[in-house]
Write a structure and sequence with these properties.
Hypothetical protein af1432; mainly alpha
């Protein structure tokens, strides 16, 4: 367990890693990457209950998908980094973060991250959509607080694959 302590401390840095897209719009006191990951995992736990998915794997995937940001920060499309290059940077950050972690755990975390990035399993597709859904929910909350700012770029459900998340997004629109 001692080899995990370093990882626990490193992961704690996500609590102080701001979500950069919100800062670009001038939001003060922005959510952290840890805030985002927590709500994603919570949504997955509740949504997953109603679906035929491996909830444990789904939640784990959502807890792992942003941890490379401990090493590379929260990169956004406005940073102008090619998606392929960003993925390599994130994978390298993940591997660096997991140095010194016992092999079975390290292998599982990398496998979960790869599965999320590839989006090929039912759980991965749902996890990717939940990640987008959480962003939309957060944008709605900021829009209510900062009525003078335009959050529309974050309110568009781009490339949502799963019907379950499409339904949740439609429900959000009704609440306008």
């Amino acid at each position: 367990m001692k080899d995990h302590l370093t990882l626990f401390k490193e992961i704690g840095k996500l609590k102080r890693t701001d979500r950069e897209g919100w800062k670009r719009l001038g939001v003060e006191d922005v959510e952290s990457v840890a805030d985002h990951s927590f709500r994603c995992a919570f949504i997955a736990m509740l949504v997953g209950e109603k679906l035929n998915v491996d909830i444990s794997r789904l939640v784990k995937m959502l807890l792992v998908h942003d941890i490379p940001e401990v090493k590379i920060g929260d990169l956004t499309p406005s940073d102008g980094i090619d998606e392929r290059k960003k993925r390599v940077m994130e994978r390298n950050g993940l591997e660096s973060l997991l140095e010194g972690t016992s092999s079975p755990i390290k292998d599982e975390l990398i496998e979960l991250w790869d599965e999320f990035e590839n989006g090929e399993s039912k759980e991965a597709a749902l996890a990717r959509d939940i990640d987008k859904l959480e962003m939309i929910i957060q944008a709605r909350e900021y829009q209510e607080r900062y009525t003078e700012k335009d959050f529309s770029e974050f309110l568009i459900p781009e490339e949502i694959e799963t019907e379950e998340v499409k339904t949740l997004i439609d429900d959000l629109k009704i609440e306008l």
